[in-house]
Structures are given as structure tokens and as C-alpha cells.
Amino acid sequence: MSIQMAASGLSMNEPLLWERGRSGRCGVDFPEDDVPDRMLPDDVAASTVPDIPALSEIDVVRHYTRLSTWNFGVDTGMYPLGSCTMKYNPKTNERQAGLGGFANVHPLVPESGCQGVLRLMYELEQDLCEITGMDAASLQPAAGAHGELAGMLILHAWLSQRGETRHKIIIPDTAHGTNPASAALCGFRPVAVASGPSGILQAETVRNVMDEDTAGIMITNPNTLGLFEAELPEICRIVHEKGGLVYADGANMNALMGIVSMGCIGVDVIHLNLHKTFSTPHGGGGPGAGPVLVKRFLEPFLPVPRVIQREEGGFGLSDAYPLSIGRMVGFYGHFLVCVRAYSYIRSLGAEGLRQASRLAVLNANYIRSTLKDVYHLPFDTPCLHECVFSDRKLLPYKVGTIDVAKRLMDYGFHPPTIYFPLVVPGSIMIEPTETESLEELDRFVEAMRTIAEEAERNPDMVHAAPCRTRVTRLDEVEAARRPCLAG
Amino acid sequence: MSIQMAASGLSMNEPLLWERGRSGRCGVDFPEDDVPDRMLPDDVAASTVPDIPALSEIDVVRHYTRLSTWNFGVDTGMYPLGSCTMKYNPKTNERQAGLGGFANVHPLVPESGCQGVLRLMYELEQDLCEITGMDAASLQPAAGAHGELAGMLILHAWLSQRGETRHKIIIPDTAHGTNPASAALCGFRPVAVASGPSGILQAETVRNVMDEDTAGIMITNPNTLGLFEAELPEICRIVHEKGGLVYADGANMNALMGIVSMGCIGVDVIHLNLHKTFSTPHGGGGPGAGPVLVKRFLEPFLPVPRVIQREEGGFGLSDAYPLSIGRMVGFYGHFLVCVRAYSYIRSLGAEGLRQASRLAVLNANYIRSTLKDVYHLPFDTPCLHECVFSDRKLLPYKVGTIDVAKRLMDYGFHPPTIYFPLVVPGSIMIEPTETESLEELDRFVEAMRTIAEEAERNPDMVHAAPCRTRVTRLDEVEAARRPCLAG
Amino acid sequence: MRYFPHTEEDIRRMLETIGVESLDALFSGVPPDCRSSGSMNLPDPLCEWELDRKMDEMAGQNAAVPNLTLLLGAGRYHHHIPSIVPALANRSEFLTAYTPYQPEISQGTLQAIYEYQTLAARLMGMDVVTASHYDGATALAESLLMAVRKTGKSTVVVSRAIHPHFRQVIQTYLKPTGFVVVEAGFTDEGTTDLTGIDWTDAAALAVQSPNFFGCVEPLSRHADAAHGTGALLVASFTEALSLGILKNPGSQGADIVAGEGQSFGLPMGFGGPGLGMLGARQDLVRTLPGRLIGKTRDRNGNPGFVLTLATREQHIRREKATSNICSNNGHCALTAAIYLATLGAEGLVRMARTNHNKAAYLAEKLQEIGMPLVFSAPFFNEFVVQAPPRFEAVRRTLMEKGILAGLSIQTHYPELDNPYLFCATETVSRAEIDRFLAEVKP
Amino acid sequence: MRYFPHTEEDIRRMLETIGVESLDALFSGVPPDCRSSGSMNLPDPLCEWELDRKMDEMAGQNAAVPNLTLLLGAGRYHHHIPSIVPALANRSEFLTAYTPYQPEISQGTLQAIYEYQTLAARLMGMDVVTASHYDGATALAESLLMAVRKTGKSTVVVSRAIHPHFRQVIQTYLKPTGFVVVEAGFTDEGTTDLTGIDWTDAAALAVQSPNFFGCVEPLSRHADAAHGTGALLVASFTEALSLGILKNPGSQGADIVAGEGQSFGLPMGFGGPGLGMLGARQDLVRTLPGRLIGKTRDRNGNPGFVLTLATREQHIRREKATSNICSNNGHCALTAAIYLATLGAEGLVRMARTNHNKAAYLAEKLQEIGMPLVFSAPFFNEFVVQAPPRFEAVRRTLMEKGILAGLSIQTHYPELDNPYLFCATETVSRAEIDRFLAEVKP
Ligand SMILES: Cc1ncc(COP(=O)(O)O)c(C=O)c1O
Ligand SMILES: Cc1ncc(COP(=O)(O)O)c(C=O)c1O
């Protein structure tokens, strides 16, 4: 076996913040007061000082520097978390988002004072329309799930405007949990439908459930098995015929840029995850951005305010959309995330984005091809941006997906997404993205093959993993049983 | 023993850069050519492509991110490297030095285009004069040793101008190696003198060697034992009487800001280390900055060009100093390092700088007091910014300074300076600086005490240290015997 | 393209391994009628220095602090961000990680967010705070849904003194499911007026303090009123810094607190991303939307942290989840924690007090030149004055002089007389305020 | 003060442990007559946001790219710095470490600098390159001292086509010890003229290529001339990027190469810090000044890196050391390595060629409008033209239009007729060049 385990090295200890604090310290200095002191009345002023630990500047720096070293990011190594598109987050995007002329603009500055901001938003909307084949967009939704909610609200508003109330929505069993949850927020009852034997949804299945009480379908394309929903055009026809709309979860758009125009194949509403496809960093849990895009006939329903081009030139914000679903966030969405996505799109151009998709698919298929002899591949067809294995072949040795995941850490890799999608028991969902090199893929494949061997020959070693990390497996059951959520 | 060892955690492997490279990759994109291609003639153009590894952007990012995690910096933990003043390097300094209006200024821009730069340099010179009690300064020297060289050149030029040639210079045995080396570059032969029984140089000793062939004395104050050269005023008188000059190595100025005015006690020339006293980061080996400061009568000898205030207002650069030692660097010194030092001085002000010195001395004495029962303290007097122990008490167990140093790493500390100053065999030179907290000092003391116990009870464990780091002790002898200096 | 590591040779070898002819052949699963015909119509790609130039130019078209003197808040506040805050938050191990699903290699994020939850809970006087929400407005909207779920009632009483945008978001969230929003007016003091409110079926009363007018609400009284009818009190805020010196909402009886944390170290960024801070009393934990991080131990008994109580969440419960939220604003929560750690208790109090003093100074001086305060309740760093008719014209000219002062809130509150909402923070000096005053003095 | 972690209580406890009464009492070793009387006269301290404002203001008083179109080099070059370069170099583990005296916890710096040494050696055609020197000028001066030490001779021949500042630094270093500097002139082609040179006791011939005029020197010929007399050839450069397409100095016979590496990812920074790149043939290793990093193994046989050959250095050899240098410009070397890794072979060649093309275009166009090239030798990205008398006046007005073009080198070379040194790099677009040309066209 040529694959080398990661090394173990010095890892600094670090207590909880409040164990470090010491009254009398402060990490900020103040100028001399230049205005008189004015006390707040006793009935509103706190009588005690808030219980926030006091640290000097260097304490804060060391605390967070040390914590950071306990983390693994894309910059650390390959992060093939399926459905998350953990591609490289370009540093130049950070530079652009950090420009004072973007970061330090107040959202209520008069239009004349934010023309650059508005232009960027306007152009980004246009770009995203071009990439998806949709007609109009809003950058307001704050994440993917929020984009879904916006989409569902649009469906709801469109139905209302037609005087209709529908109660159901079709959602395939491969869908991300956010899909049914978003639908439910709008009062739609999800109707789960099973994908067919080849992992995609069959038009027939939809035909059987689509009716006049169904608002439409929420479908992820490519789906979470990494497969293209090849019957989508037909599905769209079926749904449309019954007066429903087609919502596409576009979180996996990284497979299809410049390859498939979602608008052309019948999708009415779609959201994108800028923090996946468009390279903005995930930040250990967000902020992302989940723009929602629609066909022309749904444009009146988009969230307000909208960015508009003024006839007299320049850009503006407008609330004048009476059919709008309303406002989704306090201001206009995660603008600074949008700056990063814009920076990414401008850096790649049309050909670059298309190539990103092609290489993402190449990488996923390479992994599929090189691992399928040792890991069970439930759907052995060419995949798009990700491939889904299962732990079936390891079960005889009592080694499961969780063990494979933990053992990968010892080899210096972030584990794939595990136990999702739910349709594959013990699924191992690998999305390498286009920014991984062949050598890195080969090392990953080698690690996966080694683990499969270890599972057979020395399962205890795999059960004991990870052994290189500063903590071993954590007791999640105990954490949930007796929640300790604050110190 | 309450002290906990550092943990061991995942440490990514990373090959040499050229083992990562793969022809066809490139981490930079180019625009379309907008001018015609013009070939260079064959006799000057290389016929082959340079042998530089080719990487994509993410490869470069991972390579250096991973390497960085193999390092220990002040942000990682306490770094009590004696004589190096490894205090906290404020992040705000980095912000200021990164401003486009400083970083992106060409050095040959006309005066009207660099007034901010020149003002900063001028004010910094003034500040440093105020801090040292000197009259004039040059920011040109690129590091401490370079400041020493500038100082020696000034001595040389001053003597020459008086028509004198002197061949010797007095240098105490506690001096940093750069002192004799700098003197030698100017043709001065160092005359080593021993410090007295209490660790400081006695005036008597100087009186005995100072003569008309001696250019003066180079003296570090506080010296490298962390002691104030209390007889310096008398020494200055002796040297001056014999027509010599007094050069002070001010690298340890962190002990004395606002406490002692070097100018007032008779020093003629001094250099400062901005990368020590004034908090600029050391960067794993520089760049630093070593401004040289002089009394008024030596001002004509300072390096050119000098920053001057123009009579008509504004600032300029002037070469009009015929007695100058000339130019020390390509342009005007490490300007961006000067920006950081300026930012530091402006943040602290007079009282802040004085407090920095007082707390630095407090910290060093705290360590001295709390360790002297277990480590041999050759000079048991109150110290200034640092204290020097030796391994004498450990030698019976065959444990030496090097072992203590390596074992400290396992406890999460950077080792102190070892085997310097040379006058103390097996010296352990600890300079905590003012930015370490009492808790951190206590932990360090605890680690040192633990190691002393380990030395007695389990010396093999100490000899085997470090055990937490990703590499163990490296073979320096082999490295020097068969040098491999390029891959 | 510098982001792609694939050499021609790599691609050839990989295709061979996979057993297809070309990159295009990889898309055999995409039916021909689904393929795009032409190529996308996007501007040509820019190399990095062209991009820098373009972005510099676009950024240069906006009026931004510090070139602008800002006397305006209304949901986004210009506070100084200590340089260590972004420097630490942007360490790539934090920035380029995903949600910490794999705790063994995510302890950095996990401990940091656990600490955030703790600090935020202390500040808000809550037992539990989530790992973050998108922003204050969505946090507030979701907390009303929480109240509805918890109480089984379907009306919410919402103060008109809540930020108008927040109220709009509440509408967006509540409308499709038919929950009723009853609006409560405000008194002459500038705080929520509950007289005459119909509390039938009321799940919650939502107020903001300091409210949109900058006035501090009498939360205890509101709590009594709400609790008396079986409704929960949901307290919101847009200016988190006020938590540094005001009595915390929990101590005054709030059941849920949902506000905006942008003031804690986040740039204004044209309004986003911000930080939705959402906390609740212990008994509401299992109805909270979004992620929670909890403390536990590893196999060796060492302490560590994990995402927990996932059974509330969409990836387990799907349509029965407490919310659809998945990615939140975790990095903003990390940033807020770093900010709070930097200030510490003393710094936070001093910072808050400085804000109040600057605003009080501005208010006094405006009063002197004929712009009286509209409301009499105590305020933190924002307040409403009645401006003379000619003020709008002056205000416009001030923009050219680099001053953005006050916001007309007339359209939102037609019953007031030319009302302007002002704000002053620690970053504005007395000299700047005086310069502004000199410009507007009649 | 936020940098001091000491509380009052801490100080009290520590003083007690030490056994002194007060902080001042710690200075008992300082005789009273050495104590400062008053306090230092320095401006009042600024809090961070005041400091930001002050520094913004001072920075704003300078003409900086990209607001300035720069057609000027002469030792500092405006090249694009990829955003990853500072982002990586400024990782605090790199930035806040000292010189890697303790290799077990400094492998990051050590491997990175070892890689720098390797890449630099390959580019310069040398066997060994030091871990860095202060800048090109001091590296050159020290390399002449090396030659003197190695050969035992005491004269150096220095080309007048070397950057005037570099020559001044050579003077500074060589004057006190009485080594003689003989200057060599230049030919009509613009390269060093060795005719008539007195080689008696010559330790080295120093030339720069591309030289100060931008012209590429015939290094092979110079090597033959020097070697023929027993002198070493020392080749310098100020524009490191030229190494991307020119024959490397080592392959042409240079014994020592000493130049400036600022072009490799370092900002111009008003001239510093830069990067002194200093390399030599294998047999000169032990006379090299400064730090060297070498490969070795740890006790488990794993590869690792250490500072090595320290017996050349001041901390071991003191006055007999090969130099007094201690701290060097290590972080700049790290930066250069990251820059080179980012470009790679192909990027470096393309970058160099783009520079040459831009400069060639500028030269051709200047020629067309009556500013002929002064020299005929091939140039890289700089060249000298003869300007009409009125040019200086035009050039001044251009500064107001945001263009800094050309440098008069008349004072350094009085024998030339109104000579201006121009430069163009990849960052300047044809449109910008054309705008400049339109301004100066007669
Ligand atoms: C397919 C799919 N849809 C939706 C989402 C939700 O996106 P977000 O986490 O940004 O809300 C995800 C995220 O994991 C996803 O993978
Ligand atoms: C006392 C003393 N003098 C001089 C120096 C040399 O300074 P630099 O390394 O900046 O050349 C040092 C550095 O270690 C020092 O400690």
C-alpha cells in the first residue's frame, strides 16, 4: 500500500474563552471622550456589567488561532462532501468583497451613492439568468433553503393570484431535507415519490400523482445521486398540464453550467447556491446565498425591493411590484457573498464555467470508475458531479460508512457526505469538484481502497478511527440526551 | 504536576514543491495580448524554459497552508526567545502597511507624490530620537546588524574626517556576534573585554584597554545578560577622553523606553531593532529594520539620502551631505517595516511605551524569581527584560540546555534562546516580553519546573524530546557535513 | 484557467480510465434535447489584475465610510471593527470549512460557535441561543412561527415600532400559512402602545428594543401584558451593541429574543450578510429552528463539541422540522464572538456608553437648532427628530460634502411630522458632528 | 492598553512574588543618574479607529498605483501580485515566527526557504543561493567582499551600467577597508565596455544584466574577460522577472549572482523591503554571507530541514564571519517562492514575454514620435530614449493626470543627451500607453 497516513503534530491546547478571561483586560482602546457623559435612566440601564470574558488582544489572537488549527478546510485538503460542492474558494474573491467601497456601504445610502453596488447586483442577476436559462432573478435569499422558500412562496403567490389554493407538492425521495421543509413552510404537504430503478424520477410516477390539488414539483437536478433527471422535460409537461409549476433545486448546478439550460427544459423556478457552484466560502456554516430565478411570467412575484435599470440611466431599487411575495430579508440579501460570486463568474467567463462543470463531472466519474470494484455502487451509470457508493460490501466485516468516514481523516481527507441521500442505505456521497487534481484523486482512491482492505483485515483499527485527530469519536448520543448548549 | 502536555493532532503531509508540480498547470491567468509579440534575439533569450514547478492555484494554496501549520509563531504561543523580543505583533500594523498608498508607491515618484511617506519617515525618526535621547536618525539600515554597520561606518568616517585612523574597538564578551562582525567590516579589530563578576562591564576594565588606537566601544545596553550597564556613564567619559566614541547596541531597548535616555548618559551612536522593540513581525527571519541614531555632531555622517523638512513646507529627500557615509541600501530602507513601527508608537504614546518596558521587566523578573530555585541563575540580581539561567543543576543527570529546550515544545512553548550569551555555559536566555500574561508565565514556569523534575527522574524522556512535533530532533551535524542546499 | 489543475494529459488519462472518448461524452445521461445549443452569453473572462481594476472601479462608485460621515443607522450600524476580528475569522481553516458535520476535524468551528452561543445567551438573558440565523428579520419571523407552534395559537401581535423591513419579512413568512398579524401602535413616548389590542388567539407579542425610533421599550410591562394573555414575549433588536448597557431582554421576561448582530464586528456590506441572533428559554429548546452546538466527550473522555438536537432539523425531520434552515450565518457568529471577546465586558460597556453619549450630544445639539426630539422615551444611539421643511434639501447637498445624516421615516409613519431618524456611533467624532451641525444650522 | 494583559491585581501579585514594592523598584539596577527625568515627548496615543483614519490620510497623500499609470522602473517594478501570495505569506505561523533556530517547530519556514533556495538557484543558474539578503544592492556589495576574500585581491571592476544606487552601496561597503573600485564605462550599444580596464589585482568584475539602461549584457564575453585575468564575474540584476526569458547568468559563466527579487511578488513599498538574491558556484559556498538551509533527517529517519553551515556566521565566528548579517529578508524570500510557485515555468515565461512586448511597443511608439532609443542592445522591459528638451515640462504635467512616465538619468550620465529611462510591465494596458503617447506627442 503506497498511501501514507497523515502525520501527527503539535496541537496546542486552548481552554474555553471564559476560562481565559480575567477582569481588567480589554482588547480595545478608547479615545478620550470628546462629548459629555450622559447616563441612561436606571429603569432601562443594566445594573450589572454583562458577563463577557475580558481578554487582551494577544489572548484573543491566540485563542482563535489555536481553535482554527483544530479545523479542516478546503485549503487544508480534499473535502469531497457530496452535495456541498466544496471547490476551491479563490482568494481574489475575498479581496473584492473586502474593498471598502463594497464592505462599508450603508444599505440606505441614496441611489446616487451606491451605483457600483447596484450595477454589480444587476449584472449578477443577468449572469445567473444566462447560466440557468431563466428570465429574472432576485439575490435576496440568504441560503439555499431560503431560495427554496422564496420559490415556494412564488408558487403560492402565483396560485393565489389565479385564485387557486393547492395543498400538495411532489418531492422525490432523493430530495434534500430542506425541500420538504421549505414546502411545508408555505403550507404545502409534500408528496414523496420514489425514484425509478436507475435512480432518476420517472415521468410515469409523476403522472400518477400529479393532480389539481398539487402545486407542482420540487425536483433537484442533477439529483442527489449525481444523476441527471432525464425525464424532466416530460415531467414538466405533465406538471404544467395539470396547472402546476416546476421548481428545480439548483444546488447541484456545478454539473451543468453551459451544458443544460434549466429554463429551456421547462423549469419555472430555480434557486442556486452561490456558496457551492460559485465558489464563495462556506465559512464553517454560512453565510451563503441562494438567489431565486424565474421565468418571465413569474417575475412579478419575485421578492422586493428589486434592482432595476432606470430609464434615465443608472440603477435603482424598486418596491413597485404589487404581486411580489414581499421581502425575504432585512435588506437585499448577502451582498458581500454576491460580490464573491460575481468575481468568480467574471474570472471564468462562459467557457471557464462550462469547463468547470465538465471537469467536475470528469472527477466524479473518475472516482466512480476507480472505486466501484471495492465499494458497492447502487447505480452503476455514469454520474455527473458526484457519485454515491454504499457500505454494503463492508457490512460482513461490521464496518460501516461511519467508520470509513472517520478513517479517511487519518489519511488526511475530509470525509464525504454520509447516510445521505436516504434512498441508499449507508450511502457514501462523494463530490470531488473540479478543483481537485488527478494526483489528489488518486491519493483519495488509494486511501479508500486501503480502508476497504483494512475493514477486511483489521476492522478494529477502522472502528478505532480517527487516531490522528486531537479528539477521537465524540459521543453524539450523550450530547443530545443531556444537552449542554451554553457554558 | 498540574501542567498538561500539548496534544497531538492531525498534521498534513506535504511534498516538496517540485514533487507537486505538473507541466501544464499555472496559477496565473493572462489577458489577451494587446500589443504585438516581439521576440528577443537568440543570443540573449534562454533556449529552454526555466525549471520552475507548475501548479494550479489551489495546489499553491494547500502547499503553503500546510507548511505554515508546521511552524510555531507568536500567535501560536509564548515565544520567550531571549534577545529577540518576541512580543505580540499587532494586526493593525499589518493593515497600515498594507494600505495601497504606502505599499504601492514607487520610490522614485516626485516629492509631491510621496508627502505622506516622507512625513511618516520624518516623524518616525523624530520619535525614535525622542525615545533614545539622540538628535538625528536614519531609517536606512535593513536590520540590527546593518544598523551596527552603519554605526561603525559613522565612527570610521568621523575619525577619517579628523584625519585619524584607529584600528581597534572594545567589545564586551557578552556582545552579540553581530557586533564584532560589524566592526570587522569597517576594518576595526575587536578587543574583547570581560564583564565583571556581577555581569556588567566595569569602567576599570575599559580604562585599562582604551587607548588612542581604539575607535571606541560597542556596548549592548541592557546587555545580553539582561542587566543594565550601570557603569556606562563612566565608561563613556573614559572613551571620550581618549578621543573615542561610544556605540550602543540598542536591540534590547524594550527594557528601557521612557526609563533611560541613552543620549543623556553619553552614547554617541545607537541602533534600534524595530522588529523587536517596536513590534514589527520577524517573518521567520526578517525583514526587520535597524535605524541608526546619533548625537548632533555626528549627524553629517548619517547615510544619504536623508528625509528633510523643506523650508517652504513639506518634506523632501536630500543627498547634500558631503561627509555622509553614503548609501546603505538600494533605496531608503525597509519603509513598510517603518510603517508598522510608526503604527505601534502612535498606538502606545509615551506612557504606553514606558509601560511596555516596565511590564517587560516585570515579566522577566517574575520568571527569574519563580525558577531560580530549580535552575541555576549565574547572576542573581534583578534583571531587566530577560533573565539568563544555565543547565548547571541538570548536568548531574546528563540533561543539558538543549534537552530542556526541546522538551518545552512538548508543553506547547517555543524554547528560549540557548547557549547564548557565551559567557554563561549552557545558558538559557528567557525574554518573555510584556505581552505575556501572568497565567501564561505561570504555565511556562510550571513546564520548566516539571522538566527539571523529569530530568532527575526520567532523563531519557527529556533526551527523547520533542515527542509531540511532527519531526523529532534533526541531525544538524550531518546537514553541515554533507550540505544539501538545493533540491 | 488557474483554478483547474487538469493538464491535457491528465484529462486524457482520466477519460481512458473511465472509458469514454471525450469530456462531452461524460454527459451521455443528459438527453440531447436537454443540451444547450449555443454557448452562454457572458462577458469575457478577466485576468486577476483586470478584475482588480474593474472591481476597484465599481467599488469606487459607492459612498462608503470612512470617506462618508454617517449619522444614520436604521438597521445597519457603522462601528469600528478591530483589525484582529477579520484577521482571525478569515483564517482559512475557519473560512473554507463546511458546516461541522464531522466533529473530529471541526473542533475549531464547534468550540467557537459554542462560545458564541454562550456569550449571546448571556447578553440576551436567554438559556439557549442557536448557532445563528440569516439575519435579525428572518430570525424574528421564525421566532413568531416558533411561538405559533409552541402555543398552538395563530395570531401574532407586532409592534409598529419594529423596523418596517422586519415587519415586511414577518408578513412574507406568515402570509401563506394564514397566520394573522395584528399591529400595535406607539405612544407619544415612542414605545409600543398595547391599549385596545385584541389578544384573542395571540401566540406572541413582538416588540423591538431599542425600537425603530431608537427608544428603549418597557419590556417588563410588555412581558406582563403578553403573559397575562398566554402569549409569549418575543423581543427583537437591530442594534446589538445596546445589549452592552441596557437591561437584557431575558431578565425582563422575554421568552424568545431574535435580533440582528451586525454591530458585533460585521461590516455594513450594503445590508448583508448580517447575523440573526435567536435565543429562547430552556423549555423552548426543542422548538428552536436551526443548528445548535453542544458539549460532549470523546472516547477518551476528553471534552469536545458536536452539532446536536438534530431531530428538530430538516435533514432528519424533513417537512416536520422546526424550520427549513440548513446553512446559517455561522461565520458571522464566529466573527461576533471574536468581536465580543475582543471588547470584553468592560469594553462592551464603554463602547455602548460612548455610542449613547455621541447620540445624546447630537440630539441635544439638533434640538438647539430647532429639530426637537419627537419621542420622550430614553434612547440608545438612535432617535427621531422633527425636521423643518427645508431640511430635505440641505440633506441632499450634504451628500456631496460627504455627510449622510438622518433618514426620513415619513412614508412608514405618515402620522408623524417630517420625522428623521438619526444615529451616532463611536466612530463619529464631535468635530464631525459639529461640522454637520454647522451645515444645517438655519 | 490592549496589548498588555496585566491587570492591576496581576501586577500586585507579581511584584509580591519578586519581592519588590513597585514597578519602578524593578529598575534598581539603573543608577539614578541614568534615569530619564521627564516623560517622553510623543504625540498622544490613538485608538485603533483614530489610527486608521490618520494612516488612511497619510497614505492618501501619495501617488500610488493603480491610480497612477507607471512607466518607470529603475530598480522597483510594478507587477501584479496574485492575491494568494500575501494571503499565504501572511499566515501568522509564517509571519510571527523568528529565524528558525528550533527546527522541530519551524519546518514550515525551513522547507519553504529551502524551496526558495532551490528555485532561485535554478533561475540564476547557480549551485547555491542563500536564504536571502537585505536587497539587491547590499547583496551585490557583499558579493564583492566575497570575491575579495576568495581571491585575496583587493580591486573590483564595476560597470557604470550598474544601477547608480547599487554602485553607491558598493562604495559604502568597500571604502572603509580601502578596497579599490575601478569603474568600467559603456559602449554605444549600451553594454559594459571593458576596453582599457586595468585588471591589476582585480578580484571581480561586476556587471548588471539587464543593466540600468535596460540592456542585456553579453555575460559570456564578460565572463571570459574576467576569468582571463583571474577575476570572478559577479552578475547582478534589478529586474528578477527577466530571468524568466533571458539566458541565466550561471550558464554564461557568472561565478556569483547578486540581484534584487522585488519583482517576485513584493510590493514596491517606496523601495523596501525588497529581496537580496545571492547565489554562487558550489566552491564558493563556504565564503557566502548569511543563512543557508539544508536538508537532513530526524531521529526516525524522516526528512527535515535545518539552518546549516553556521560556522560561516557571526554568531559562531564573530569577527571572522563571512558577514555580519543576522536577520535577513526571509519573509520576502518566502513571498518570492510563493510567487514563483504560482506562476510556474509557463507563467513566468509568459509574464516575462508580456513585459517585453509592452516595453517594445512603448519603445517603438516613442521612437515614432521623436524619442529615439539611445542604445541598440536588446532590452527586457526598460530602455533609454533621448527626449526632446520640452519633455520634462510635459512629464511634470502628466503627474497631475495620473501618469508617471520615464526617469531622467542625466545627472548620473552627463555624457548622454537628455536621456530618459522608461519601463512597461504587464499591468499597463495598450490603452494606457496610448493615452500617455497622445499626451506627449508633439
Ligand atoms: C441539494 C441541496 N439543496 C438545498 C440545500 C440547502 O442549501 P443551504 O444549506 O444553503 O440552505 C443543500 C445543501 O446542503 C443541498 O445540497
Ligand atoms: C543584542 C543584539 N544585537 C544585534 C542583533 C542583530 O539584529 P538583526 O538580527 O536584526 O541583524 C541582535 C539579534 O539577534 C541582538 O540580539
Notes on the structure:
The complex is a heterotetramer, with 2 copies of chain A (487 residues) and 2 copies of chain C (442 residues). Chain A is of the alpha/beta class and 487 residues long. Chain A has 15 helices and 13 strands. In chain A, strands 2-8-7-6-5-3-4 form a 7-stranded mixed beta sheet, sandwiched between helices. In chain A, strands 11-13-12 form a 3-stranded antiparallel beta sheet, covered by helices on one side. In chain A, strand 5, helix 9 and strand 6 form a beta-alpha-beta unit. In chain A, helix 8 packs parallel to helix 9 and helix 11 crosses helix 13. Chain C is of the alpha/beta class. Chain C has 12 helices and 15 strands. The relative contact order of chain C is 0.15. At the B-D interface, helix 2, helix 3, helix 4, helix 5 and helix 6 of B face helix 1, helix 2, helix 3, helix 4 and helix 5 of D. The complex binds pyridoxal-5'-phosphate (2 copies). One pyridoxal-5'-phosphate binds next to helix 6 of chain A.
